[in-house]
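Lab notebook, bench 4. The sequencing result for the construct came back, and we need a structural model before the next group meeting so we can plan mutations. Quick request posted to the team channel:

Model the 3D structure of this chain.
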Amino acid sequence: MMKKKMRVLASVFAISMALTTLSACGGKDDKSANADDPNAKDTITALLPPVSANFQDRFKDMEKQFNEKYPNLTLKIEPASWEDMTQKLDTQVNAGSPPDIAFMGSDGISKYAQNDMLMDISDVATEDMLKDYDPAPLEYMKNGKGLYGFPAYMEAHAIGGNKEYLEKAGIDYKKVQKEGWTFDEFREAIKKGVVTENGKTSRYGFVFATAGVTSKDYLGILVKSAGMPAAFTKDLKYAYTSKNFLEVLKDIRVMIDDGSMPKELSSIDAGKRWNMFLTGQTMITGKGLAVFERSAKLNNEKLKNKDDSAVKGSIPVEYVVLPVPSFAGAEAQASVAVDGYVTFQGTKDPTAAHKANVVKAANFLSSGEIAATTNNELYVAQITESGRKAAESMPSDRDPDNKAAVEAMLKTAVPARPDIPTDLGAKAIKLEDEVIVPKLQALIAGEITPEAMYEAVKSAAVQAFGEDGIVKD
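Done. Here's the predicted structure in token form:
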């Protein structure tokens, strides 16, 4: 599903193993490869991971539907796992023959834009196509003035609670869903969720995955609700030298020190985090995604049917969507994942006809019934008018309060920042990888203080952006 694995943020690297690559910019035998005839036969290639549970099972039907809509066009889909998606895409990009379309996180667009391998469709996407998409997620598919594909969904990064435990702790979770909460309120709530037996903690108030692919998630999500919605301010000053950044670091440490979170937090990955939630070892879990409600329901059903594939030691859980608290007196802003169908081109410029055909395919995949079916499976909001209309006839057992909570968070979604230059963005990612992530792991493990981490980040920021390129407050 929409795990952090799907993020295409790693630097492009050379891969020696031979992998079959997709033909770039249409099949070699396509008439449109050398012509601008809009009615000529053409093949559009797409590299797609298992976006939802049954997504890849529908590939043949999707190819057929596209051909029925555009008889002269063929959509050729290559499946990829989440694990090898980045490797396959990077191999094809390095060979100069990427797929026409790849499903990926919008935060990876700047990476490929630097290599001139993306196809800017801003001059080809029609007004009818564009007005179908909600404006906020569509902005995430831009870099500078270019538009590089269409969004599939905009998913809020929330946290999730066990309804029974929240009620036992006296937490008015419905009020929190509607109004949010401050860090101080959140801290008191998670203290109430801790259960100790024989001097040992059997249930924590809060657990967040911080190991492996989730190492960037924790801090990245929290700082957005601390007055730092992006790594750069509107005037392009590096934001994480703000005093609010230090406050968040202190708050991260204090939740461990007061026993609300496990001391071994730095070793908890996404799988263990979810296992702890389903086995009743934590009241609240993070990062929470809308589809976790569905995952909990599926496990509940397995428990009911005494299915051996249920998580070992798990209990029935009613999953409650909760917003991330606000920090340092700032307004809460929802961190979001906007993933979608990104358009690529090879070393040769595509013909006008092929470019238009790629846009038709990307639009087909990201709107209407295709998008509605996938998003309905994921429990995420529909972000196209055509998708909303198609979803009206689709059954859903989603909790209405959870649905409303996600919709409320999406209204506070951090806006896209296509104005951040790619060179600044690249420097920020480098600083994150080389300084922030390792220092955060040390902070969580109790090896350094919040102040020491803050000074290390500030020093690295000055080196990267200069004294005048950082926030000083």
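Confidence is low (pLDDT under 50) at residues 1-34.
Will bring this to the meeting.
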